[in-house]
Amino acid sequence: MNKILTLLSGFALMLAAEAGHSYTVYNNSGDTVKVWGEHCIPCMAVTLNPGASASCPGDNDGCRGDTTISFIDLDDDSFSDDCYKATAKVTNHGWVVITGSDGFFDAAVFDNGGQQRNANNTGIKPTRYDFEC
After folding, report:
1. Longest dimension (CA), the chain
2. What's the sign of the alpha-carbon dihedral 15, 17, 20, 23?
3. Quick one: fold of 21-132?
4. What are the boundaries of each domain within the chain?
């Protein structure tokens, strides 16, 4: 009986973990940013004020990891529409930390174990085209 309860408890924990958020984006920058996780209907698309964060729920198809995070600076007065992309994909239960301001940003991508995935290169890839964002 104890083995059955242990198996059921483990299964319930596994289901709870899968239903939890798949990845989180933290806006530690000084600007308000619009953040996208790829381009699909159930994927993350959110505006984050400085100091805010948002999670993409793991029960959404577009929120299960291996996702490219893109963002634009909504406080940019230059009307340049620069789009920034993280240089590594965020994995399941990983997170992204956006830092900087006024067009000088970084996006550190961490896996679920806390290791930075893009530590050996610059954290963002700026692009000038909205269709790439």
Report:
1. 67
2. negative
3. Immunoglobulin-like (2.60.40)
4. 21-132
